[in-house]
Amino acid sequence: MTPDIEASRDIAASPSAVYAALTDITRMGEWSPETYRAEWNEGYDAPAVGAEYTGHNRHGDKEWSIVAEIVELVPNERFFFNCKVRDFVYSKWGYAIEETDNGCRVTEYNQDLRPEQAKVASATISGVEDRLTHNLAGMEKTLERLAAALEEA
Q1: Angle at Cα 56 formed by Cα 51 and Cα 58, nearest 5°?
Q2: What CATH code is carried by the domain that includes residue 112?
Q3: 30: domain range?
Q4: Rounded distance, CA 136 to CA 120, Å?
Q5: CA 149 to CA 151: how far, in whole Å?
Q6: I need a surface site. Which of 53, 94, 117, 139 has the fewest CB within 10 A?
Q7: Rounded to an integer, what distance in angstroms lies between the CA atom of residue 132 and that of residue 30?
Q8: What is the number of structural domains in the chain?
Q9: CA–CA separation, 69 and 54 (whole Å)
């Protein structure tokens, strides 16, 4: 993946604790300011390459859902997924976890693959005009909330 944006944060928790939290997609609503709930799609109940889940998102009075497919999973190191409509991947997301002396550094990545003509429709659905700026702020908030939850545990 060649990310358009990325955000990093040092977290005073083990790589295994961070990985377990991120890959438990049912907890995504605890971290993300946009995805308020996520659930495994039929036939899946745990993280694995190829597993799919649906994220339910909210921005202001707008709500929408997306299907995500896990494309890379390396225990305690990497969790990457594609957001798609049918077979078209319009966004790629991921987390890399690197051990540090005090826990780990978590980096969240995002790559926007929407064609220009889809961006107007997307803004109408989500209420977000500047997706990159919005996503970067959301990524920073996600990592802040993740750190708060894991560092107090």
Answers
A1: 150
A2: 3.30.530.20
A3: 5-151
A4: 19
A5: 6
A6: 117
A7: 22
A8: 1
A9: 9
Q: Determine contact, residues 151/12, Cβ cutoff 8 Å.
A: yes
Cα(90)–Cα(87) distance, integer angstroms: 9
| Of residues 35, 65, 60, 29, the one with CA closest to residue 127 | 60
Residue in the block written with tokens 């978590």: 106
Which segments within the chain are labelled E, that is strand?
5-11, 35-40, 52-59, 62-74, 78-85, 88-100, 103-112
Contact of 28 with 145, CB cutoff 8 Å: no
Quick one: tokens of 148?
């708060």
| pLDDT tens for each residue of 18-61 | 999 999 999 999 999 999 999 999 999 999 999 999 999 999 99
User: Hey, what are 119's tokens?
Assistant: 């961006």
DSSP for residue 86 = T
* pLDDT 10s digits, 85-121: 988 999 999 999 999 999 999 999 999 999 988 898 8
For the chain, helix, strand, coil in percent to 5 are 30, 40, 25
> CA-CA distance, 57 to 117, in Å (whole number)?
22
Which three-class secondary structure state does DSSP give residue 135?
Answer: helix
